[in-house]
Every structure is written in C-alpha cells, then in structure tokens.
Design goal:
Blueprint: H1 10-23, H2 35-42, H3 46-58, E1 62-65, E2 69-72, H4 77-92, H5 95-104, H6 106-125, H7 132-151, H8 156-164, H9 171-174, H10 180-198, H11 202-234
Antiparallel strand pairs: 1-2
Helix pairs in contact: 1-3, 4-11, 5-6, 6-7, 6-10, 10-11
Length: 235
Amino acid sequence: MAKGTTKVTLIDTIYSNIRRDITMRVLHPGQKINIKELSERYGTSQTPIKLALNRLVSEKVIENYPRQGMAIRSVSVQEVGEIFDMRLMLYLTCMDKIILTINYNKDLHDELRKNVEEHTKVIESLTPDSPVDEYIKNYQLDYLFHKTYLKCSGRKKILELYDFLNPFLYTNYIFRRQSKEKDLAGVHEHSLILDAIESEDADRLRKALELHIYHAKNAVELILQVDEIALDQMM
C-alpha cells in the first residue's frame, strides 16, 4: 500500500452500511437488532456484523442489553437538550486559547475557513434526490468544524468529551427533515463564529456560539417532539 493510505476492512464497510441504514431510517430508533437479518442484508458472515455493531455500541449509536440483545438507540427531547447544553459548555471553555491558536496557526485557520466554504457548496448542491452519501458528508463537515475548533483548545480531554457526547447521534433523527435554508443558516453561523475568532473578540464569540447551539437544539427538539406526537396518535 502507498504511504499515507488507510486500508478499509470488511468491518469498516459493514460499520458504514449500518450507520447509513440508521441515518436513512431503514433501521429505526428503538428497533431491535437481528444479527442474522443484517448478515443476509449485507451478504457476509455474522462475525464482522458483530464487530461492527460493537463499534457502534462504543459510539452509543446502538445499545446493548445483557441477555436481551441490541437495539438502535433512542433519545428523548430532554436528553437532546442536555447534550447540546453540555456541548456549549465545551465550546465556551478555553475561548482565549482557542482564539489565540486559530489566529496564530494558519493551517488550523485555513482548515476552518475551507470547511465553511466546502460545507456551503455541499448543502447548496443537495436535492431531495441527492445520494445519501452527500447528506452524510453534510453532517461530517459539521462535525469536523466543531472538532477542529475544540482541537485548538489543546486539551485532549475536551475532545474526548465531545466524542463521548456523540455529536453524530442527532443526525439519525434529522436526515432529510431539515430545510436547505436552515442547513445553510447553520453553516453561516459557523462563519460568524470564525469571524468572531478573527476579530479576537471573546464576547462576540460567546454570543455566536450561544446562538448556534440555541438554533441547533431547537431544531432537533422540534423534530423529536413531532415524532413523539405522531407516535402517540398511532397508539
């Protein structure tokens, strides 16, 4: 293999397929996992299925109940609110260090600015018929913007906490359910965050972060509330 390349294993492929099916709601929140059915669906033995599922368990996308099996994780409106509140706490930590790092590290600054530009182009190109990978790329770019921002704090534990909160989890509930206008507004807020950093204005940065989390939290909570009402009506 050429230097710098990464080998994609069968487990990686199965992992991506399961994630994609969860995102597309082929596998629904709360649904019990049937390993035999997944093995047939993906055309492989049960061993790589189990290993891929274990990775998703570690990411808290799937829950493992002793002697009961696995299920796609569900989240409540309250839990989503708490997750976003905790994310805001992380973003507001070490703001002075983050501002300094981004303004004096051209590579990190350019990485964030290119992320905003690429993210904008990806969203603008999305249509109802766009491949699912394009939607997933939208969510990945969102994740990478916040990940890079927190990386500039220089604190590994903050990055670990960010991943522990599982920022990808909520994408399982909003896939193709939020308008392009709202997605673009979210990326514009990323740009405002970066503008505040460039101006070295901590108060402006705090307000931009608070506004961004407020809008993101409200959007996901609204979708979950609509789902809960629909579920109640079916019962």
